[in-house]
Specification:
The protein has 388 residues and is mostly beta strands. 14% of the residues lie in helices and 39% in strands. A hairpin with a 2-residue loop joins strand 5 and strand 6. Bound molecules: fe (ii) ion (FE2). The site of fe (ii) ion has 7 residues, from loops. It holds the Pfam family Pur_ac_phosph_N.
Length: 388
């Protein structure tokens, strides 16, 4: 019998397209339809009539198990619904309709969430995935337009079953309507599954994209600091390194109001597993006005003071946030904080971010929905920042 074993889930939202992925139990064909639905005061899926009007469709008659289709010619900032279909000799399956929202235009507000360690923590976790499910459920309550995962989605990326156990099953109801991006953590082990399951721009372990007024850059810190050299690199964070050169050229080319970078190993954490070597990235991040860096790896929450030139700079610093996410290892903290630590707590959590052209609101929320940290960054027309 043909069944859907993963997804469907959403990838790489743009103003006029969305990539839809799913996995089937057998090699099968793929089709995705995007539908418009009429708004009413109450009814199907939160104030929509049952969607019937197909506005875009895409199909692939070739057989595969991991399906990836990009639906095009959509309108920006618009809520649609989608259906997916697969068929082979063993049967036919479909799923939907599920909501999707295209990317907002420049100048329009949006929100996103950040978490990580759904698998990295689970290696120590006795809760049978309860924490992972709670974190996904809490993020869903905030209805983010997209979400970032800062690595260690799985315990062992080379183990196929891990992807279902730690990520796709607990996250199913969330990623069905929330496009997501991830970076490689050490637990992914640079496995081919990462490259198969996610639809990021090549080479996929690092890439960048725009959403509204934010330019996001994903880096692969496990490539900068190879496992055999961890936690000290062999001096690869410099020009001539393909990923470093990509970072510089990419930052040079963007004129986005906000710049956010995410990668797994934390350059600043008052706890274990800090990878100081990654501070070699800071000069270029500072030069091009990066606002926030998200990291993970140390399974706690920690927000740094704004830092520039290796010291606190309340006017123009970068805030480094370790969103160690779906777990909590209080013992990994040092007994006391470091100079760069602004706020920190070892609880399972995610970060919720609301973005407008000149204000970034960040909130850290625990697995039961309690707010435990907040920061606002306001940016003047001269680019000057205020941390509130
Ligand atoms: Fe890690």
């Amino acid at each position: 019998m043909l069944t859907i074993v993963k997804g469907p889930y959403l990838q790489w939202p743009t103003e006029d397209s969305m990539t839809i992925m799913w996995e089937t139990s057998e090699q099968a064909s793929s089709r995705a339809d995007v539908l418009m639905a009429e708004r009413i005061h109450s009814g199907y899926q939160g104030n929509y009539k049952k969607p019937e009007h197909v506005v875009s469709t895409v199909s692939n008659k070739g057989y595969c198990t991991i399906h990836q289709l990009t639906v095009k010619n959509l309108e920006p900032s618009t809520i649609y619904f989608y259906n997916i279909y697969s068929a082979c000799e063993k049967g036919e399956i479909e799923s939907g309709p599920h909501p999707l929202k295209t990317a907002v235009r420049k100048g329009e507000p949006f929100s996103f969430t950040v978490t990580s360690e759904t698998g990295g923590y689970s290696g120590f976790d006795q809760s049978n995935g309860r924490i992972n499910r709670n974190i996904f459920h809490q993020m869903q309550r905030y209805r983010p337009d997209l979400t970032l995962f800062v690595g260690d989605l799985v315990n062992d990326g080379q183990n196929y079953d891990d992807w279902e156990k730690y990520f796709f099953r607990p996250g199913k109801d969330f990623i069905i309507n929330t496009p997501f991006y991830s970076c490689l953590g050490n637990h992914e082990r640079n496995a081919s599954w990462y490259y198969d399951f996610f639809a990021y721009d090549p080479p996929k372990n690092y890439y960048s994209f725009d959403y509204g007024d934010v330019h996001f850059i994903c880096l692969d810190s496990t490539d900068f600091i190879k496992p055999e050299h961890y936690p000290n690199s062999a001096g690869e964070i410099s020009s001539g390194n393909a990923q470093y050169d990509f970072l510089v050229q990419d930052l040079e080319a963007t004129s986005a109001a906000w710049k956010i970078v995410f990668f797994h190993y934390p350059p600043y954490i008052s706890g274990g597993y800090q990878v100081e070597e990654l501070r070699k990235l800071s000069p270029v991040l500072e030069q091009y006005g990066v606002d926030v860096v998200f990291n993970s790896h140390t399974i706690v929450y920690e927000r740094s003071h704004p830092i520039r030139g290796g010291q606190i700079d309340e006017n123009d610093g970068i805030v480094y946030i370790v969103a160690g996410g779906a777990g909590a290892m209080p013992d990994w903290f040092l007994p006391k904080r470091e100079w760069h630590t602004s706020q920190s707590l070892a609880v399972p959590h995610f970060v919720q971010v609301v973005v407008t052209s000149n204000l970034l609101e960040l909130r850290a929320i625990d697995e039961e929905g309690r707010l435990f940290d907040a920061l606002k960054i306001r940016k003047g027309t001269n680019g000057r920042k205020e941390f509130l």
